[in-house]
Amino acid sequence: MKCALKGLLLTLAASTMLAACACHKSEAGGQVTATAAPAAQEQPLQVGAARTSLYVPLLKGKRIALLSNQTGLVGDRHVLDVMLDNGLNVTTIFSPEHGFRGNADAGEHVSSSVDEKTGIPIASLYDGKSPMPSAETMSKFDVIVTDIQDVGLRFYTYYVTMVNLMNAALAYGKEFVVFDRPNPNIMTMDGPILDMTLKSGVGALPITTVHGMTLGEIAQMANGEGWLKDGGKVPLTVIACSGYTRHTRYELPVAPSPNLPNMLSVYLYPSTCYFEGTTVSLGRGTDWPFQVYGHPDMTGRSFEFTPKSRPGAKTPPQMNRLCHGVDLHTMDAEAAIAQGINLEYVIDAYRDLTAQGKDFFLNKGNFFDKLMGTTRIREMIVAGKSAAEIKASWQADVEHFRQQRAPYLIYPD
Questions:
Q1: Could you tell me the residue range of the domain that residue 88 belongs to?
Q2: pLDDT tens track of the chain, all 413 residues?
Q3: Which among 126, 55, 136, 39 is positioned nearest to 88, based on CA atoms?
Q4: Residue 117 resides in a domain
Q5: What is the CATH classification number for the domain harbouring 88?
Q6: Which of 35, 36, 117, 240 is most exposed by smallest CB count within 10 Å?
Q7: Cα separation of 167 and 130, whole Å?
């Protein structure tokens, strides 16, 4: 992937970075946030991890646990190397879904290990045992730093991992720091608020499906809304991006996970991920994951593809079966952004397969419901409602969340 921003992240001198930022302190929960000044949009975009003058003094002399993966880049260097070169004492690495190097399948258990380059122990948070680190692991550091690229969807698991670590920090009296990164879907808010009776690994907070927030903003909201365990608050610092607004188009410099290989897949993800809860392939095991959909029994389709086993998709749905379906991989990126959540694709496949008496929802729709965050959307699809009618049904949720999230936003419109 090309990134127009590559090479700009470290171009400003430390004095310039300090002049470009305004730091304010909110006494609630001891929260300290480094935020961009109003004129920041006139400057080159810098991710939080690039703003070493803000966080090195804060972290110097402390034992640090770092939550990151292959997306934790500062230019062409990993944030871990930047931190070590600045004399910071990183004692533990936490790895999320897909592992520290980002090459594991979705949902695949990842074992703890050691980073070969630095020798620092890696504690997997996706090993199938517990989302909470052990007491022994928690004793090895004073502060947790999160630097990972999210894509702005409630069912994308990186924010869930972050919130789990915030709860661990709360339980063990640790500080928490977020090196913020742009959300490539920040311009969009869509979908219902999660019904917390459906809380799961693909939905942890009562937020809309496409929430339009960065991880730093979500961390502030989880702290401020009492969403952490027993309504507690962690000592939280967000090192904000500079030169960033809610309308900035940010092209990711590296794939955030194996099946989001390009920006179109990221923009279509809000509309096509629900196929995960159905019998339909969404292109895992092809060159176009989340950019096509199909099934061996779908009718009247000229587009065909055959999912194959490959790294990041070892056993994709409908593997080695010829699927007939719809090709979205040539869609214009702006058109994909503009549609937000478009359930026409799911409804199209549902009507085709159920008209033939074929199964559509897996496990009685349970995983589909978890992805949607509610049971009522599946019920509306079964009842024959249109995509437009379904989208209209969650607009009150969107407006409620728009107001609720407002106090926690860092970046201007």
A1: 14-251+401-408
A2: 333 333 322 222 222 333 333 333 443 345 556 544 344 446 899 999 999 999 999 999 999 999 999 999 999 999 999 999 999 999 999 987 655 654 444 444 444 578 878 889 888 775 556 668 989 999 999 999 999 999 999 999 999 999 999 999 999 999 999 999 999 999 999 999 999 999 999 999 999 999 999 999 999 999 999 999 999 999 999 999 999 999 999 999 999 988 999 999 999 999 999 999 999 999 999 999 999 999 999 999 999 999 999 988 999 999 999 999 999 999 999 999 999 999 999 999 999 999 999 999 999 999 999 999 999 999 999 999 999 999 999 999 999 999 999 999 999 99
A3: 55
A4: yes
A5: 3.40.50.12170
A6: 117
A7: 13
Measure the CA–CA gap between 118 and 99, rounded to whole angstroms: 16
> What tokens were used for 80?
């871990």
C-alpha atoms less than 13 angstroms from C-alpha of 135 in its C-beta half-sphere:
0
Has residue 163 been placed in a domain? yes
DSSP states along 90-131: EEEEEE-TTTTTT-SPTT-----EE-TTT--EEEES-SSS-S
Tell me the C-alpha to C-alpha distance, in Å, between residue 123 and each of 57, 65, 127.
26, 10, 9
CA atoms of 411 and 234, how far apart (whole Å): 22
- 63 and 167 fall within a common domain: yes
The pTM (predicted TM-score) of the whole model is 0.88
> Of all residues in the chain, what percent are helix, strand and coil, respectively (each to 5)?
35, 20, 45
Is the domain of 217 the same as that of 275? no
d(CA 229, CA 223): 10
Residues 94 and 67 sit within 8 Å (Cβ to Cβ):
yes
Cβ(212)–Cβ(401) below 8 Å: no
Q: Which residue type does 248 have?
A: T
Q: Which residues, including other chains, have CB under 8 Å from residue 223's CB and lie 6 or more apart?
A: 29, 31, 166, 233, 234, 236
Tokens 């349970």 locate to 366
Structure tokens at 102: 């980002």
Nearest to 86 by CA among 65, 61, 68, 69: 61
Q: How far apart are CA 372 and CA 361, in angstroms?
A: 13
Task: State how far the Cα of 24 lies from the Cα of 41, in Å rounded to an integer.
Answer: 19
For residue 266 the two structure tokens come to 């990221």
Degrees to nearest 5, angle at CA 305 with 304 and 307 = 155
Closest CA to 79 of 162, 13, 145, 8: 145
